[in-house]
Amino acid sequence: MTASDGAMLDELLPGRPGDAALSNQLLSTTSRPLTRGWKLAFAICGALTLLLFAMVALTVLRGIGMWGNNIPVAWGFGIINFVWWIGIGHAGTFISAILLLLEQHWRTSINRFTEGMTLFAVIQAGLFPLLHLGRPWFAYWLFPYPSAMDTWPQVRSALPWDAAAVSTYFTVSVMFWYLGLVPDLAALRDRAPTRGRRIAYGILALGWRGSVQQWRHHKVAYYLLAGLATPLVLSVHSVVSLDFAITGLAGWHSTLFPPFFVAGAILSGFAMVLVLILPARRVFGLHNAITPRHLDAMAKLVLITSWIVLYSYVTEIFVGWYSGDRYEMYQHLVNRPSGWYAWSFWLMLSCNCLATQLFWSRRMRRSPTVLFAVALLVNLGMWLERFEIVVVSLSRDFLPSAWHFFKPTWVDLGILTGTLGFFGLLFLGFLRLVPFVPVAELKQMRTELAHEPAEARP
Amino acid sequence: MTRDARRDRGREPSGDRPAVMAEFASGPALLAGIRALRDAGVSRFDAFTPYEVAGLQALLGVRRSRLTWIALVAGLVFGGGAYLLQWWINVVDYPLNIGGRPFHSAPAFIPIAFEMTVLFAAAAALVSAIALGGLPRLWHPVFEVDGFERASIDRFWLAVGAGDAALDRARDTAALVAAGALRVEWLGAPPDRAGGPP
Fold first, then answer.
1. Is A193 in the B-facing interface, judged by CB distances under 8 Å?
2. What share of chain A is helix, strand, coil (3-state, %, to 5)?
3. Could B12 and A18 be called an inter-chain contact, meaning their C-beta atoms sit closer than 8 Å?
4. Max Cα distance, chain A (Å)
5. Given CB atoms, is A449 within the 8 Å cutoff of chain B?
6. Is A175 in contact with B126 (Cβ distance < 8 A)?
7. Measured between beta carbons, which residues in chain A are less than 8 angstroms from residue B134?
8. CA closest to B101 among chain A residues
9. Cα A7–A10–A15 angle (5° rounding)?
10. Measured between CA atoms, how close is B190 to chain A, in angstroms?
11. Which of A375, A438, B48, B111 is such that its CA lies 20 to 30 A from the CA of B21?
12. Per-residue pLDDT reduced to its tens digit, B13-40
């Protein structure tokens, strides 16, 4: 045990830096001078965020007629982007909660980073159903409150489920993230260079002293939140998938949808983690905290989930054929592989299932360039999967006379691009304002794996 | 009894208003310090560490947090409440006939009931972790000790509550230094059995 733990530690934290060195390095990401790359990225993301706000304002002022939605494709980009963004969030919770419970030590360095990704992705996701309502100022009608109209929400519909699942997911993610952050905020309170920052971090740290009682409750609450987040993360995308599955549309009406959506969500989320962590690691010089061992583990998870997703695709097609239903058969055997949008089907398969096969090779799993490229492709592929489900299924539903081609408008594209920028903006701010590698947890992992003697006296 | 002492009494009996604090360079050294004083009869320990030290809670006889029970109750109450609320609004107060399906559709009420269980159990866990740890409390006497700012970075501090009658300034300073303390700070008026402060 000791030898293998030591070897794992050398892979996860090469050089085994001491408490002070590790704290200085990881806390300094909040105060070291801004690099030109960071400023440039921040400016671009800020501009795209302004674009997003302009497009949202336009949508609210003029209505969703500004989007490409039509009948039968009533669910265009709004729902694609919603499902895509919320799926991306899932890997964050998977890493921070499920891998914590499974005692995967490699998660420690990256869990806060991925939780941040979750929060900001869910914020983007939340925008879309809100706007898609058409009259977003009535969104509160989804919540049960004693209204003067004497009406209540219809809770047998998937829409209130969605509202409950997404808002719970966001809230619990924030709480889990904050609880893990408190000891590091206290460290920043004690280490930040200016008085203003010390006061700000001091207030956020709530006066944390690391006393025996505080650690005692903190640890139990942290594991408890991980335990609660685990079924939660599985439930969120399942509920999202029910928006589709409880309808009668060919290509949607399937019991496969909940696990299929969860697997796809985790695949896209891991890809997004890689897209974000590779540049951040380089910009902030954290090669000792985020090592090839971490990249290797994430690449393996991408490979595994990509096979689960492929299995789901195959099952979906098989069940479509086996059902004997002419609409199902048409949808899976004709419309998707050879219809108007056949290119998206084949591109999706290439991105999600073919490109990831590179990760059978250990050398590819540890090459940042390959990882980054494949991760981008998977993100594209997962977006196309949602395009496939939403647009391709709807555009040719039952009666050929009702079919309608869907084409996004510039407002659709502007909003999608804008959310990418807004996500980036929030993420860059997060990288700057809090230590994005959990310092206290990493120090503790080092003592545990190094088996530094707990018993100093016989 | 001063007003301060009265106000602070009963908050965190061990460690609030410490009589003595000692700084150690590592977790094991901290444990050695605690053992050294415990052998001399001292009992009101607290410790401030940058991360959890293995064996510390066992050494101080800290029992498992009861926070899980609070979270369980909150989850069950609010989860059950969410189910009841759905039943009441869709069956009693505002029944809507949707395609002839039953008003009380148990499977359709599960997702929201589940989400509310998780939401309120998690909120209860977070609030309890903060409140049971005596937070938020932005100022605490230990923050006044020189060098305590490293307790969140790389130093491990031992504190003994002011009410501990077994403390003995000369003896305990020597014992702490022998156990590896880098610095020993006596705060306020020390209960020195050898006869008043030197």
1. no
2. 75, 0, 25
3. no
4. 86
5. no
6. yes
7. 211, 213-214
8. A156
9. 150
10. 22
11. A438
12. 444 678 888 898 888 888 888 888 888 8
pTM of the model: 0.89
How far is CA A319 from its chain centroid? 29
Is a pLDDT exceeding 90 seen at residue B122? Answer: yes
* B89-103 pLDDT tens trace: 999 999 988 888 899
Q: For A38, phi and psi rounded to 5 degrees? A: -65, -45
Task: Determine whether the interchain pair B133/A154 forms a contact, defined as Cβ–Cβ distance below 8 Å.
Answer: no
pLDDT score recorded for residue A445:
84
How many other CB atoms are there within 10 angstroms of residue A104's CB atom?
Answer: 13
Nearest chain B residue to A246, by CA: B108
CA-based nearest distance A265→chain B, Å = 19
Residues in chain B: 198
- For residue A207, give the nearest of B94, B126, B140 by CB distance: B140
pLDDT at A276 over 80: yes
Chains A and B: how many Cβ contacts under 8 Å? 216
Report CA Rg, chain A. 23
Interface confidence, given as ipTM, is: 0.89
Q: What is the dihedral of CA A363, A365, A370, A375, to 10 degrees?
A: 170
Q: What is the CATH number of the domain that holds A127?
A: 1.20.1630.10
Cis peptide before B191 (omega within 30 of 0): no
> Which SS3 state, helix, strand or coil, does residue A211 take?
strand
Q: What whole-number distance in Å separates Cα of residue A184 and Cα of residue A163?
A: 32
Looking at this protein, which amino acid is placed at residue A404? H
Is the confidence at residue A44, as pLDDT, over 70? Answer: yes
Residue A3, pLDDT score: 59
**Average model confidence (pLDDT) for chain A?**
89
Residue A434, in any domain of the structure: yes
